[in-house]
Structure to design on (297 residues):
């Protein structure tokens, strides 16, 4: 089941937007301003037939227009409000996508940057086509699932970015070189039978570097798995797009219900991976955290 989608306006948000839209209608707003001005005039200069007529006539006219728009023409205004809310959500998501792309560029991670761009392109292509060519409950369900798939992809990319940033400050080649040097020093000292006090700390240093390299390998594998899962979500969006392009009508789209199922399966699989990865990241051992922090120094 798809989780609650901020790209689909909630009833409360739609009601607030509908109220604001009908109050801002010119035939409601301007009469209200005239009535307010007339009220101020009567308060300062005293009432007269003309100011009384203008004030209360404007108030009555504007109120009547608002009642008609809000209670009789609400479907038209609700549709317009829904489109505005979706457009605002799209702009916010475009900004999030741009921030992710900049972050990947900053750390020089080409694969993450590519996955971010391809995910956004796949979602926009599918959602735009459904909005232009199809209507009805099933097409709307596909749009919601496409948004859900896109959001899950963004969540995974954020988690992957956190891992990539942590890995970018680690220098595995330097760690391996130091390990080799310390091991050689210990081996040579052992062959000569020396007991150099300066070499006693090498065992501890070797154990620390080995643990850091082990964590580096684990996190590198986790990053690769996250990016692969994001690619699977992008593939699901692309596959759904190709399926709906082949279907010329909303009736044919409804007859082929496998598109929605494919998106749902892809999202559920991605969430399982995300939950597992977040479980690893949110509760690391204290020693592991210290090793990773020390590895960047």
């Amino acid at each position: 089941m798809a989780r609650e989608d901020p790209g689909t306006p909630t009833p409360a948000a739609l009601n607030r937007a509908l109220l604001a839209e009908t109050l801002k209608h010119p035939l409601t707003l301007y009469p209200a301003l005239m009535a307010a001005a007339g009220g101020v005039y009567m308060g300062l200069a005293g009432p007269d037939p003309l100011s009384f007529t203008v004030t209360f006539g404007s108030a009555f006219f504007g109120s009547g227009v608002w009642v008609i728009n809000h209670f009789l023409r609400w479907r038209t205004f609700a549709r317009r409000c829904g489109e505005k809310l979706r457009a605002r959500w799209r702009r916010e998501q475009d900004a999030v996508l741009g921030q992710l792309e900049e972050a990947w560029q900053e750390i020089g991670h080409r694969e993450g940057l590519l996955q971010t761009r391809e995910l956004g392109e796949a979602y926009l292509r599918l959602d735009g086509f459904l909005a232009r060519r199809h209507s009805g409950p099933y097409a709307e369900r596909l749009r919601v699932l496409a948004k859900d798939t896109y959001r899950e992809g963004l969540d995974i990319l954020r988690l992957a970015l956190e891992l990539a940033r942590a890995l970018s400050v680690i220098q595995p080649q330097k760690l391996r070189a130091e390990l080799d040097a310390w091991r050689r020093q210990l081996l040579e000292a052992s062959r000569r039978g020396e007991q150099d006090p300066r070499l006693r700390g090498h065992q501890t240093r070797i154990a620390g570097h080995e643990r850091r390299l082990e964590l580096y390998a684990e996190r590198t594998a986790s990053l690769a798995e996250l990016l692969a899962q994001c690619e699977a979500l992008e593939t699901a969006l692309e596959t759904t797009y190709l399926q709906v392009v082949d279907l010329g009508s909303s009736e044919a789209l409804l007859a082929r219900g496998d598109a929605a199922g494919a998106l749902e399966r892809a999202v559920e699989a991605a969430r399982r991976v995300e939950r597992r990865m977040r479980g690893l990241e949110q509760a690391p051992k204290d020693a592991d955290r210290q090793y990773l922090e020390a590895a960047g120094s």
User: Anything to note?
Assistant: Residues 1-107 form one domain. The chain has eleven helices and no strands.
